[in-house]
Structure formats: structure tokens, C-alpha cells
Design brief:
243 residues, alpha+beta, eight-stranded antiparallel sheet, two-stranded antiparallel sheet, globular
Length: 243
């Protein structure tokens, strides 16, 4: 019985120390009332989304409905299926997140003419987390080629940052107009010098959109402590049943 008690206490200590894991969260941009042209910023609890447009357009992150036809950019449209990429051609992505190219009608929070910034460079999409995260992944649509893409993704832990060139993490993917690719999530093992991720900045050198932004929050200490107490409680119940 003493050995079992020590084991339970050790497990509880590990959970409180950060051994507990949180479930990944995926932002699809198809919920929280988003429609084609919605300006995206604080709709999702726990993360603030923004954009910096370096191509001359507004600093706006906007939802683009890839299921529509007759939009201002058919390379972002699903049409009858994606032309290339590592996602199945019939994968419906719905709303994508883009750097908005024009300010038309955006004053009311829904842009009248959603279109991704096509200048080179285009700008950045920024994700700032209320609770630090330990991983980050996404889908990329309509990134055209390694030769034309000089973007990057930068991970921040406060003032400390690690930047990965886009040509590095796009290597091996099938790129091109109307392509759809899933990028394997980065975790802390890929980012030497960081103990957590508080912000991510994706810099696009040209047109493109993102979807299924996935990240794993660091468990809050209170949640880990409650889980640890639950483990100890289960141990106590098991002992009482044997008495």
C-alpha cells in the first residue's frame, strides 16, 4: 500500500509540474458567425488575430469563402477540387484566412470585395495567444512555388524568437496555383531556445490563404492541480474498496 501511495503522489507531482497535456485547438474560420469578407480579430477566445499588409492594402485579416465561385480570386476557390497539394482534391476547406488586398466596404466589419494581397511581399498574419502554446500547424492554399516564396514563420516566447524560412518548411510539398497543403505542426523540439510559444507571425511573400490553424495550449496550473487531486482521489477510493 505504501508503494502505491508513493506512486500516486509521484504522478500527482508530475501533473502539477506540467506533465498534464491539453487538447489541440483548431481554428476553421467557419464558425462564430464568420461569412465571406468577415474581418477576423478577437472572435476566438484565447487568441487575437491581426494582419500587417506590406503591399499597400489595409492591415486586415479577413475570411474568404473558398466554396464560392465568381470571387475576386479563383485560385482560392475550391471549384471542382484543388488542383494540387498534399490534401485530397475533394477536401472542402470552407473559409480561409487572408491578408485583405483592398479596403472596400470593410468599415462595418465585413469587406465587400474579399481578395488576398498579391503584391510581393504581401504581409503577415499574426496570432497572439492569451495562454502560451506548445505547437502550431496550419493549411496553406495557393502558395505558388519555392522559387517565388520568400516568406517565413516566426515563433515568439516573449522577446525571444525563432524564424523558419518558408522554403524550409514548404520543401517536399506540391505547390502551385489553387494548391492546398497541410503543414506538419511545429513543436518546441523544432524551435531551439523557446520554452513556450506566445505569438506566431506568418509572413507571406505573395498571395495565399491559411486554414485549420492548430495549436496546443500549455495546461493552466489550476487545471493540472485539479487533475492531480483527481488522481489522488481515485487512489483513495480504490484503497477504501479493499478495506
Amino acid at each position: 500500500m505504501l508503494k502505491q501511495k508513493v506512486a500516486l503522489l509521484s504522478l500527482a507531482a508530475l501533473l502539477v509540474a506540467g506533465g498534464a497535456t491539453a487538447a489541440p485547438i483548431t481554428l476553421t474560420f467557419d464558425d462564430v458567425g464568420m461569412v465571406h469578407g468577415t474581418v477576423v480579430n478577437t472572435q476566438y477566445s484565447g487568441v487575437t488575430i491581426s494582419a500587417i499588409n506590406t503591399g499597400g492594402g489595409p492591415n486586415l485579416a479577413v475570411a474568404f469563402d473558398s466554396n464560392l465561385t465568381g470571387t475576386r480570386d479563383d485560385d482560392l476557390q475550391f471549384n471542382s477540387g484543388w488542383s494540387t497539394g498534399n490534401l485530397a482534391p475533394d477536401t472542402r476547406l470552407g473559409n480561409l484566412l487572408i491578408i485583405q488586398e483592398n479596403p472596400n466596404g470593410c468599415q462595418d466589419g465585413i469587406c465587400d470585395a474579399p481578395d488576398d494581397e498579391g503584391s510581393r511581399p504581401a504581409g503577415s498574419l499574426i496570432f497572439e495567444f492569451d495562454v502560451p502554446v506548445t505547437s502550431f500547424g496550419l493549411d496553406l492554399v495557393d502558395v505558388e512555388s519555392l522559387a517565388e516564396e520568400d516568406g517565413s514563420i516566426t515563433f515568439f516566447d516573449g522577446a525571444t524568437s525563432v524564424t523558419v524560412d518558408m522554403t524550409t518548411f514548404l520543401s517536399g510539398l506540391i505547390l502551385g496555383n489553387n494548391s492546398a497543403n497541410r503543414v506538419d505542426p511545429f513543436d518546441l523540439g523544432d524551435l531551439p531556445g523557446l520554452s513556450q510559444i506566445t505569438k506566431v507571425e506568418l509572413t507571406l511573400h505573395g498571395s495565399g490563404g491559411v486554414d485549420n490553424v492548430t495549436f496546443t495550449p500549455v495546461p493552466e496550473p489550476a487545471s493540472a492541480a485539479l487533475l492531480a487531486l483527481g488522481v489522488l482521489g481515485l487512489g483513495a477510493r480504490a484503497r477504501s474498496r479493499r478495506v
